[in-house]
Specification:
The chain is of the alpha/beta class and 440 residues long. The chain folds into 2 domains: 230 residues, 3-Layer(aba) Sandwich (Rossmann fold); 193 residues, 3-Layer(aba) Sandwich (Rossmann fold), CATH 3.40.50. The chain is built from 18 helices and 14 strands. Strands 3-2-1-4-5-6-7 form a 7-stranded parallel β-sheet, with helices on both faces. α10 links the parallel β8 and β9. The C terminus is likely disordered.
């Protein structure tokens, strides 16, 4: 059985000790508290509600993006195994909202990956199947689960070419966890090859596609045509989603330029973190460019030239109000955010130059459904404004790009079902950890 190394355990202990001092933000503090207190809550749930006559499937996904991939697989698996109990854990505080709405028996933070925490938690929960989403696999949890007879799997397996996990020493430290996998669903052949480099036995990897395509398509289909958010855009509207300050600098300049020839153009800005400080900075930047004063979503009753979204959880619907989309993250280190959500609405998509770790952005570019902007902010704003005006003026070109974007999303459908079938086979091929008769 693979085991984590002394070096990995020592580094984790050090990291946990230093976590409160390395990042003093409110979000980091919230996550630290959740991960520290999570074992007690999960153990209490196990004592009160764990039915060992039913299989327990434990899904883990780090944050919202990974969680959405896991969600679509979980929903399909519930159809195949409605008798099972389901547990969902996350690492980031940003996933709390998603965790609360998932159809699971309980959801909470994943505790820190320390032996003294993981061993008793696995004993209390007695899961039959542990499923990691995307790449957020924790070696202590995976190896301890495997050693205790739990089947360990990965779905939506994605490894970016530049992932730090592929380099030394991370690859060595994490290898035991990946070697513990009984099955892994990769989204593409290149990801399968990189998972094998991380330590997953090649014969246990299958290429199943990306469940996120199913997730975003279902989300768009679930939006009511009468949703009031859809009425806040219209022709000429660009929705800038999950933006950071560098993104907003480019988008606001492009908007100012576009309005000189297309005064009917509208912009909806959806900051990734809509704190009051961030919102005020956007308002100041708009004023400096001579733009109309932004109207916050909480005060909006009708379409306005510049809408500033001051709450979370609405972006996926707001894309439906747009003609074009800009997706943030391509000018910073956080990584490009999801380009599939606007594409599922049929929006041509634009983004910054740091997109190469996003397979989805590459698919949209190769399918002529997206625009990648240059590094220089001035050139980027000019390029975005030109594209905005051209798409607004040429309805046939816009319609063709819209169709290509939507077709790319539709071409990825079915991955969630295939992933769920892989997991269902793992459940069906193993006995319950405790028989129904013994449970009674």
């Amino acid at each position: 059985m693979p085991r984590t190394s002394i070096a990995y355990r020592a580094l984790l202990r050090l990291g946990v000790l230093l976590a409160p001092t390395l990042d003093r933000s409110a979000k980091a503090a919230e996550g630290h508290r959740g991960r520290s207190s999570g074992p007690g809550r999960l153990t209490a749930w196990a004592r009160a509600s764990r039915d060992r006559g039913r299989p327990l499937v434990w899904f883990h996904a780090s944050s919202v993006g990974e969680g959405l991939q896991a969600e679509s697989v979980l929903l399909e698996l519930r159809r195949l195994h409605p008798e099972a109990q389901y547990l969902y854990t996350h690492f980031s505080p940003s996933a709390e909202g998603l965790a609360r709405r998932l159809p699971v028996d309980t959801a909470d933070y994943l505790p820190y990956d320390l032996p003294a925490t993981i061993r008793p938690l696995l004993t209390a929960l007695a899961p039959d199947l542990l499923v990691f989403s995307k790449l957020d696999l924790w070696p202590e949890l995976a190896t301890q689960a495997d050693a205790g007879g739990v089947t360990v799997a990965l779905v939506a397996g994605t490894v970016a070419p530049g992932s730090g996990r592929l380099r030394w020493p991370a690859r060595t430290l994490l290898r035991a966890g990946y070697a513990s996998l009984s099955a892994a669903g990769a989204i593409a052949e290149a990801d399968a090859d990189r998972l094998a480099r991380l330590g997953v036995p090649r014969e246990r990897i299958r290429v199943l596609g990306d469940p996120r395509f199913d997730s975003v398509a279902a989300k768009v289909q679930a939006v009511s045509p009468a949703d009031p958010l859809l009425a806040l855009g219209g022709p000429g509207t660009l929705v800038a989603g999950s933006t950071w300050p560098p993104d907003e600098g480019v988008v606001l300049c492009a908007f100012a330029s576009t309005r000189t020839t297309s005064p009917e153009a509208r912009l909806i800005v959806v900051p990734h973190e809509p704190t009051e400080t961030h919102l005020q900075a956007v308002e100041s930047a708009a004023a400096a460019l001579g733009l109309p004063a932004p109207v916050r979503l909480s005060a909006a009753t009708e379409p306005v030239p510049l809408l500033l979204v001051d709450r979370v959880g609405v972006l996926a619907r707001l894309y439906g109000a747009g003609m074009l989309a800009y997706v943030g993250g391509g000018y910073g280190r956080a990584g490009l955010h999801s380009v599939l959500e606007p594409a599922a609405w049929g929006l041509p998509v634009s983004f910054g130059p740091r997109w190469r770790d996003s397979r989805d952005a590459g698919l949209l570019l190769s399918g002529d459904a997206a625009l990648a902007l240059p590094e220089d902010p001035g050139l980027a704003a000019a390029r975005l404004a030109d594209w905005w005006r051209a798409m607004e003026a040429d309805g046939s070109a816009r319609s063709a790009a819209s169709g290509r974007a939507r077709a790319i999303v539709e071409s990825g459908a079915g991955a969630a079902r295939r992933s769920a079938e892989l997991l269902a086979g793992l459940i069906s091929s193993r006995p319950l950890r405790r028989s129904p008769s013994a449970a009674r």
